[in-house]
Write a structure and sequence with these properties.
By secondary structure, this protein is of the alpha+beta class. It contains 7 helices and 8 strands. The strands form 2 sheets. A 5-stranded antiparallel β-sheet has the order 3-2-7-1-8. A 3-stranded antiparallel β-sheet has the order 4-5-6. Helix 2 packs antiparallel against helix 3.
């Protein structure tokens, strides 16, 4: 074999390696893009129809009935607390702090000015079965959770999604193809209401590269936001019972001795 033919063979080999590297790079880039889309799309790729059947409606109605009963019991509890708080100055102060804490925890209905955000699916676009990229045309649990988090960062003092108050116990997640808020199924449109400084909330949610901006890139019609002079948000109706989290003993009030209790009773 001549030196010339060997050189040509070597160059041919280099071109083959270069072509393989180029194709591999394109595949990796496509994989990264798909992974980004799936990260937003969540787990709703198993059901291309994304339909909300009668079973979901039945679950919502049962949840609303239970919430009504819980509200009545908590309202009655608040009435009793207020009556007990009228006894002494100390009791009145304690009750005032208790009611303020309940507001912060989301256990009380609140009203005030703020913003209302409506998220809807991109109904203009069709959905190919098992195509995760096209699932970007739908609102997912991660989208709602991101909006809630961004509202908190923007200064929201109280938030509700489709009538469900957001609290420290709130979970926003997909179960199959249905988004659940506080373990209650919700269907689009998703109405997110937030009470706080109206201008600060509105400006914070319209920042470039923000969560709403990313959804608008798919279709601006998927997002609608209004300033509201008055919003009424319901109280959180889920369980508040703690089974494992306990305060340290140093944070618990000290028990008075028997003699001290008797002296207090005599006073």
């Amino acid at each position: 074999m001549s030196v010339f033919s060997a050189s040509m063979h070597h160059r041919s080999f280099l071109w083959q390696i270069s072509a393989v590297c180029f194709v591999l790079g394109m595949v990796l880039a496509a994989s990264a893009f798909t992974a980004t889309q799936i990260a937003r799309n969540g787990v709703r790729s198993n059901n291309p129809a994304l339909s909300y059947g009668s079973s979901t409606q039945v679950a919502v109605e049962k949840a609303q009935q239970s919430e009504g009963e819980i509200k009545k019991l908590r309202d009655r509890n608040t009435e009793l607390e207020n009556k007990l708080g009228k006894g002494t100055d100390a009791a009145s102060t304690l009750n005032k702090e208790l009611q303020e804490t309940k507001v912060i925890a989301g256990l009380t209905e609140v009203s005030g000015s703020g913003v209302q955000i409506t998220l809807t699916d991109n109904i203009k676009e069709g959905l190919a079965p098992n195509d995760p990229i096209n699932l970007g045309n739908y609102i997912h649990d991660v989208d709602i959770a991101n909006v809630v988090n961004e509202l908190k960062v923007s200064g929201a003092e109280a938030i509700a999604v489709n009538g469900q108050r957001i609290s420290t116990q709130t979970a926003i997640r997909c179960v199959g193809s249905v988004v659940h808020i506080n373990f209650v199924p919700a269907a689009p449109p998703y109405i997110i209401q937030a009470i706080g400084n109206t201008n600060a909330l509105y400006g914070g949610m319209n920042l470039p590269q923000g969560v709403l901006d990313e959804i608008r890139k798919v279709n601006p019609a998927m997002v609608h936001m209004d300033k509201k002079s008055k919003l009424v948000l319901p109280a959180y109706s889920g369980s508040t019972q703690m089974h494992f989290a306990k305060p340290p003993k140093s944070a618990l009030p000290e028990k008075n001795s028997k003699s001290e209790t008797e002296k207090d009773a005599q006073k």
